[in-house]
Write a structure and sequence with these properties.
This protein has 134 residues and is α+β, with helices and mostly antiparallel strands. It has two domains: 43 residues, no CATH class; 91 residues. Helix content is 51%, strand content 16%. The protein contains four helices and five strands. The longest helix is centred in the last third of the chain and has 28 residues. The radius of gyration is 17 Å and the shape is globular. The relative contact order is 0.12.
Length: 134
């Protein structure tokens, strides 16, 4: 079964290593095959990975797009250990993400990575509120 993607005018999509930019009209693509596919909104640039959890998301994205995802595993697991040490509440996210990475379902791991980023944002907001309340 093909993946169906609707693109807005000017929206970009990454298919394999090619970036495709939609023209001025809505477009519907039917894509069959095993190529890595990312919408523009899901792509994180390296310079945008400015927090530990965003760096983790970026590494998962690199795994998803790489011909050899394992080349990013050590860096990923080292960073996960660091983050878990600082934030034990993130363990549940890492259990789920690690399961997807081991299965090789990197896109699903990326989706869970977005949830991890939201959790990190909430933690940072809570710490900031507590600091300003003192």
């Amino acid at each position: 079964m093909a993946l169906v993607i609707d693109l807005k005018p000017g929206e970009k999509i990454l298919i394999g290593s090619a970036v495709i930019t939609n023209d001025s009209q809505r477009t519907r693509l039917h894509i069959a095959g095993d190529a890595a596919i990312l919408r523009e909104k899901d792509v994180m640039q390296e310079e945008g990975a400015d927090t530990p959890c965003k760096k983790i998301y970026f590494l998962i994205q690199c795994m998803y797009l790489a011909r050899n995802p394992r080349e990013y595993h050590q860096k990923y697991f080292d960073l996960v250990n660091e983050v878990q040490g600082a934030s034990p509440t993130s363990a549940i996210f890492f259990m789920q993400i690690n399961e997807k990475i081991i299965e090789g379902t990197y896109y699903k791991a990326m989706k869970l990575g977005k949830e991890l980023i939201a959790h990190e944002k909430e933690l940072i907001e809570n710490v900031t509120q507590q600091a300003t309340a003192k």
